Amino acid sequence: MFIHFGLYSLPAKGEWVKMTERKDMKEEKYQEYFDNFNPDLFDAKEWAKTAKASGMKYAVLTAKHHEGFCLWDSKFTDYKITNTAFRRDIVKEFCEAFRAEGIRVGLYYSLIDWHHPDFTIDARHPRMPPGCRPADPSGTVGGEETWKRINAGKDMDRYRRYMKDQVGELLTNYGRIDIVWFDFTYPNDGGHGKTAEDWDSEGLLKYARSLQPWIIVDNRLGLTDTADGWDFVTPEQFKVEKWPTVNGERVPWETCQTLSGSWGYARDEMTWKTTENVLATLIHSVSKGGNMILNVGPTGRGRFDSRATSHLGEIGEWMKLNSRAIYGCTEAPEQFKAPENTILTYNPATRRLYIHLLAYPGGRLACPFAEDVAYAQFLHDASEITLERHGTAAEQTQEFYKSGNEGVSYFLLPAVKPDVLIPVIEVMRK
Ligand code: GLC
């Protein structure tokens, strides 16, 4: 579970709102969200229980997002939750509650900071100069002179120090942290982006690992080409076409996905994915050897929105019956070709193959690997699925019956789709 929570939950238009509505979002306006931040219904235990019930194994909370607001009691800034009416340290409560549920904890830390006075204004900053378009600064009025002027006196050295101090706090004061999710590097903005050097990514990473040697780190520090500069890659909102590679080698990966079209709470955002669609992305990711981290954007009162809760409930229902086809699973061995409209996952330890029926085929499913099948059942209820093997006595013998089906073996399925969003056939191999 990914959790995007911050001041942006109040304007309720997503976590980039300070940028996307920058013309109206002057600093004074954004300050109103700090002044009114008070998530009175926040209950870390409830979040953790919901995460657990929906099948989550780890969770990553935005300790600081691009807006710069800190959800913990940082010594290095006043722009923090303990200075709002709410006063409590959410990072602390999050870590404790999720750990208590047996969920691994991770912290997201934004490299970008639209509040810190030393963070230089760039082409993706709400205070970018007139004429500059995000990621295309070429139209900036007054050109490089303007950039120099707006960044006069800003000292990225101080900002780098600040990041290190804060990462130090997060990785020292909250017990074991399993993941740190740095976000993100954007060097290609005509000299007005940020590079690994701007963050001192190597130093930051080294420091993080020195504090928590077991920690795993995403690849958004801009060090994807550096050996040891990351632990997993992060295709965002992607159903990848194949197992991601770096320098030709398959690598650990995680796709981050939203439920709706936004990470931070967006009240009026209506493009919610269906639960089936989300599950298909999860299954698909596992089938290419990856993980999925699914996002929730709590409301300004600190609760999961009802739409998120209902999706997570459905996902939990499915996971309760089908998680065996997800946990510990990966891409199926090459000899298994997926039947039409299905995705295969595979558990190498148990040697079980899982056929996820995305579109229910009705009475039969052609099985291209019958010789490998010892026994098959629906995963959700352990009801046997008979395999009608081609060339055996059990196979119907009339000539007309075979037309077009010569040589094919079939799983015999109920005509009506069982009451599970995506039914799964579990295959025990010979
Ligand atoms: C992007 C966005 C950010 C979001 C993140 C999640 O980098 O800037 O808002 O937190 O993706 O992957």
Give the overall form. Answer: elongated
Give the N-terminus to C-terminus distance in angstroms. 36 Å
List low-pLDDT spans.
none
CATH-scheme architecture of the largest domain: Alpha-Beta Barrel
Output the structural class. alpha/beta
Kindly estimate the percentage of residues that lie in beta strands according to DSSP.
Answer: 15-25%
Alpha plus pi helix count: 11
Mean pLDDT: 96
Bound molecules: alpha-D-glucopyranose
Main sheet summary: 7 strands, parallel
Short structural summary:
The protein is α/β, with parallel strands linked by helices. The chain is built from 11 helices and 16 strands.
Question: What topology does this entry show?
Answer:
Layout: E1 2-3, H1 17-20, H2 27-35, H3 44-53, E2 58-64, H4 90-100, E3 104-110, H5 143-150, H6 156-170, E4 179-183, H7 196-199, H8 201-211, E5 216-217, E6 245-246, E7 249-250, E8 254-257, H9 275-287, E9 291-296, H10 306-322, E10 342-347, E11 352-357, E12 364-367, E13 373-378, E14 386-388, H11 399-402, E15 409-412, E16 424-429
Parallel strand pairs: 1-2, 1-9, 2-3, 3-4, 4-5, 8-9
Antiparallel strand pairs: 6-7, 10-11, 11-16, 12-15, 13-16, 14-15
Helix pairs in contact: 3-4, 3-10, 6-8
The protein binds alpha-D-glucopyranose (GLC).
The site of alpha-D-glucopyranose (GLC) has 8 residues, from loops.
